[in-house]
Amino acid sequence: MTEPRLQRQLLVWLLGPLMALLVLDTGISYWTSLKLSNLAHDRSLLEIAREVALHVRPNGDGPKLEMSPAVERILLVDQDDRLFYSVANAAGAIIGGNAALAREPGTSAAAPRFSDARLDDTPVRQVAAWMPYEGHGADAKVLVLVAETRNKRQRLAWDILASVVVPQLLLIVMAVVVVRVGVSRGLRPLQRLQAAVSDRSHLDLSAVDVRGVPAELKPLVAEVNELMLRLQGALDIQSRFVADAAHQLKTPVSGLKAQIELALRETDPQRIRHCLAQLHVSAERLSRLVRQLLALARNEPGAFSAFERQRIDLNALALEVAMRWVPEALQRDIDLGFEAAAVPAFIEGDAERLAELLNNLIDNAVRYSQPQGRVTVAVGHCADGQCRLSISDDGPTIPAAERTRIFERFHRLLGNHADGSGLGLAIVSEIAALHQARITLEDDSDGVGNTFSVFFTPAPPPA
Questions:
Q1: Backbone angles phi, psi at 149, to 5 degrees
Q2: Of 116, 140, 158, which residue is a domain's last?
Q3: The pTM is what?
């Protein structure tokens, strides 16, 4: 299906009403010209009827038409039309002329009546008038009918119509040319805009220049530029993810291949079992790395348009997530505790992402705390416009110089041999940014370990 062109639509919308007005005006002008033509010739027709009445003479008890053939030719001969007449007495009897024009006489002497009729299937214009005849006063009258074909009337009507419509038609033709040229010139900015976009490479996502763009199109171009900006951000995120994934997955995948090759060369069942155990550990590390990479990509600023905010009880969410880590903490001989706020602490956010934030903070605390250490998840009372969620651990104290870099991707402290990818705190930072939350890192209150705190804006009270 062919899509409608804007230029064609504009021409139809602009010229269509003009053509409709021309047709309407032509009809009205023809009706008016025909009326004027009839008005001009009806006077002549009435004069002929009066001349015919002058040839009616009294004859005993009734009138008699006395018109010689010569007089009849003089009255009725016309170079363009044929004329017909008839005369009837008061009783309706035809006393002369064409009997086909006979009409029933009226009962009163009304004014002359003009009408359109047909005579022998020929359209005619006729006049019927009661007129007095000589010798019997004003009360003695005859009905005189005179009819005429419509040739000169039609010709005069067409001449009047042409004199009115032809200038209008020429004006319409000029308007068509002017409108077409004007529309073509008015659409040139669109053509230049089309060329500016079509000539671009698929890698060129820079903003479209709005100079010379009509004011009506500037909002559209501005939206296109915004789309380009968002698309550039999405492509940057994708490129960064691909680079991060390629960089981080290369080493574990190579390790898996090496361990598989080693296992294939072994013949001792015990050594093969040991290799499989190492493969399992490596696969777990690789799985965790992939999950963290996907989580990081999913929580990139601008990676999605928006998420549905829900009213969340921070106490309940933190307790639920902390309970999932109890088996892991017990396995590592870590004392995992939870301290709830005295009253419910409600915030607005995405429960799944906030659970992911908590999982990464608790995982980080449990992973780096020393054996028989302590990890505490605490929710502070919402005061001063902030709700505080904190995770304290007994791990190595992070130097102050490193605290600004600890949330960067793949950044790990030197000398730390704990298993990790350096992505957990980067994920925490991205999720906090999505929720307009503020995250801090301080020494633990007991002087051993660190305390990560996330400050959220409290949810407004329910309506």
A1: -65, 165
A2: 158
A3: 0.45
